[in-house]
Design a protein that fits this description.
This is Peptidase A1 domain-containing protein. The chain is of the alpha+beta class. It has six helices and 28 strands.
Length: 498
């Protein structure tokens, strides 16, 4: 009997060594090739196992695996964006959850780390674009049971989440797991993922027309982190917001080949829990603002938040920027803003042709720590006056007494933004985002040339089968409840991280 046990142990050891070495140097059990250091091969085995529960924190070894796999041709999810900054204050995409799929319009938000939709049991949820998610109608839905890696409800039965945003709205509910589909224009197959099933929402989240939020930030509950940890996409995603008066655009979950002239900034994940860039200077009409570069490094530094409508600068930077812009406006007339409650800085006489705005307003450049410059056209710092034809207002405001520099969606209109998380950098490329969407759906087509044309989104999205409807509203620029990140502001979905 002892002899039999010894032989069994020897067999197991031999099999273990053979499996590790062949996997480390060749092909894994799922057919994927990996290039790994054989001295670290003992770290491979756990990477092929499913996590014990959907709330378990991601392992650094899984992240290393994804980095080593980055050159492989993993699929990505190409998804259309809807809405715009002027009418809605946000951009949305479509996700389908469950079996059969139930459709939702979600705000794409790099400042949030959780994806959630209203649950059928929610009695404190507003009336949104689509019906609430009904877990009972999905044959693949499972609640996430209470465990040591999540916050639990009072009965210690289910995992729960709670989020508060900078404009003081809140969302809370339970965590569930189900199949999430990205539309049949996506090369990425439907995936099981964890999401929030809302039981309560307050503030602007209650009144907005969009159903919920798609969290693209960093964190265990982020849909990007979840897909990366599963090894189904590379550690990257991209957003491209349509221009002034157009809206729409495109989103890609997963890696893309960056254009050769894309401008990059380092993005330090240790510096801030949000996506940050290394902003050093701002130039107006070719002249640098007289500022100490440290002004852009206060608190969270300079962060990008796709869920925020406008941009917010620390006091000294805002005053300098405003003064520099006004010195360059020689033929325009200062006028009152659309909302008498705010001292918006607005001008008339520029005309309604967006492509001609650069003849009336100066060019602005953001200069990064590596010396690269991102050119901002007028549509990247202006919004249309809602009451005066041919008038425009500054879409960059003072961020109260908060020293953080917050760059919202307005700054990246008609700009492809590549969030290259694997290499800790963010890329920017000026282009026509409406045309980009159409090119993304033609395999092998070259990316469109930079353009400021006022095109329309003509592509028709074909959702998965059995998907349910459309339309929205939101607060108009100039009609919000506040202009400060630190106070209530409609269109500011920056998740508060404490």
């Amino acid at each position: 009997m002892a002899r039999l046990i010894q032989l069994t142990i020897l067999f197991i050891q031999f099999y273990y060594y053979y499996y590790i070495t062949t996997t480390a140097h060749g092909v894994s059990s799922n057919g994927t090739t990996f290039l790994l250091d054989s001295s670290r091969s003992a770290m491979i085995l756990p990477l092929f196992l499913s996590p014990p529960n959907p709330c378990t924190k991601f392992s650094s070894t899984r992240r290393l695996l994804q980095r080593s796999n980055a050159n492989n041709a993993l699929p990505n999810a190409r998804m259309r964006l809807h809405d715009d900054l002027l009418i809605n204050g946000y951009y949305t995409t479509r996700l389908w959850i469950g079996t059969p799929p139930q459709r939702f319009a979600l705000i794409v938000d790099t400042g949030s780390s959780v994806t959630y939709v209203p649950c059928s049991s929610c009695e404190q949820c507003g009336r949104h674009q689509d019906p609430k998610f009904q877990p009972d109608l999905s044959s693949t839905y499972q609640s996430v049971k209470c465990n040591i890696d999540c916050n639990c409800d009072d009965e210690k039965q289910q995992c729960v989440y709670e989020r508060q945003y900078a404009e003081m709205s809140t969302s809370s509910g339970v965590l569930g797991e189900d199949i999430i589909s990205f539309g049949n224009l996506s090369a990425l197959a439907p995936q099981r993922a964890v999401f929030g099933c809302e039981n309560m929402e307050t503030g602007d989240l209650y009144s907005q027309h969009a159903d919920g939020i798609m969290g693209l930030g960093r964190g265990d509950l982020s849909i990007v982190d979840h897909l990366v940890d599963k090894g189904v996409i590379n550690d990257s995603f991209s957003l491209c917001y349509g221009g002034m008066g157009i809206g729409g655009g495109a989103m890609v979950l997963g890696g893309i080949s960056p254009p050769s002239n894309m401008v990059f900034s380092q993005s330090d994940p240790v510096r801030s829990p949000y996506y940050n860039i290394d902003l050093k200077e701002i130039h107006v009409a070719g002249k640098p603002l007289p500022l100490n570069p440290t002004v852009f490094d206060g608190k969270h530094g300079t962060i990008l938040d796709s869920g925020t409508t406008y941009a917010y600068l620390p006091e000294a930077a805002f005053v300098s920027f405003k003064d520099a812009i006004m010195k360059e406006l020689h033929s325009l007339k200062p006028i009152r803003g659309p909302d008498p409650n705010y001292n918006d800085i607005c001008f008339s006489g520029a005309g309604s042709d967006i492509s001609q705005l650069s003849s009336s307003f100066p060019a602005v450049e953001m200069v990064f720590g590596n010396g690269q410059k991102l050119l901002l056209s007028p549509e990247n710092y202006l919004f249309r006056h809602s009451k005066v034809h041919g008038a425009y207002c500054l879409g960059i405001f003072q961020n109260g007494k908060d020293p953080t520099t917050l760059l919202g969606g307005i700054v990246v209109r008609n700009t492809l933004v590549l969030y290259d998380r694997e290499n800790s950098k963010i890329g920017f490329w000026k282009t026509n985002c409406s045309e980009l969407w159409e090119r993304l759906n033609v395999d092998g087509a070259p990316p469109p040339a930079p353009s400021s044309s006022n095109g329309n989104n003509s592509n028709t999205e074909m959702p998965p089968s059995m998907a349910p409807s459309d339309q929205k509203h939101y607060g108009l620029p100039g009609m919000s409840s506040s202009r400060s990140l630190s106070n209530s502001y409609i269109g500011n979905e920056l998740e508060i991280i404490v």
